[in-house]
Amino acid sequence: MMYVFLIPLVITLLISLKRNIWNKALSLSSLGIKVGVLIALVAYEKRLEYLLDVSVLYIMASGAGIMLLLHLILRSDLE
After folding, report:
1. Which of 18, 28, 32, 35 is the most exposed place for a label (fewest CB within 10 A)?
2. Percentage of the chain lying above the pLDDT 90 cut
């Protein structure tokens, strides 16, 4: 089952090769969410409750990092 989840990860990495900054930011955000969900699936399958906390924190940190990155990029474009 885990191998089926790796296919969207590879597709996301291929999309990130485009030159447009917005496509790269979207693929990074998508990649962060997919990795977080993958961690949650492993935690559920192995019955490791602490990994569920790690996956939630990972998704939150990934989202905050993308927002900060886009804020800095937009700010540099305006100056």
Report:
1. 18
2. 37
2 confidence band (pLDDT: 50, 70, 90): low
Nearest of 27, 21, 24, 32 to residue 76 by alpha carbon: 21
Segments forming the whole domain that contains residue 36:
2-78
Q: H helices of the chain, where?
A: 2-15, 21-46, 49-78
Residues 6 or more apart whose Cβ sits within 8 Å of residue 4? none
Contact 5, 39 (CB under 8 A): no
DSSP state, 17?
T
| Tally of structural domains, the chain | 1
